[in-house]
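Notes from the 1:1 (GR / supervisor)

We went over the backlog. Supervisor wanted to see one worked example end to end before approving the batch request, so GR pasted a single chain during the call. The sequence is below; no edits were made to it. Supervisor asked that the structure be written out right there so they could see what the output format looks like.
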Amino acid sequence: MPDKIIVDTSVLIALDKINLLEVLCKIYGEIILPEGVALEFGNIDLNCYKSIKVDSPLVNVLTNDLNLGSGESEVIALAYESKNRALIDDLRARKIARQLGIVFSGSLGVLLRAEKSGFIDSAYKKALELRNKGFYISDGIIEDIKRQ
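Structure output shown during the call:
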């Protein structure tokens, strides 16, 4: 059964760039967007998401003390407190999420899961398309995806 996932803005932007935003609804039953993410992204055309106001002191710590963006801070705080998984691309945010014990993936993980589930033909081709549209993906990671 598809599950809930908390999604950061960068993942939404990446998937939107390659016209795969709707794959989130196919892979996950419910997309949770903190209000900060919904505001950062703007108009989102997904029928499987809900926006949640995050009222947590952890957001202030992450934003003010660790200098994360508000969307990333809300994603991490909500994932930590709700014990749900998250989709995060930002390296600093991923490092903090890891330290807090949050289970996460990112845009490329979504592509791999979409290919495995039969929703796209090739995660490798979509990763190349994403890189061609300005999303940084190292050669090593591209090669890893190609081998999968």
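Supervisor's comment: The chain has a mean pLDDT of 93.
Batch request approved.
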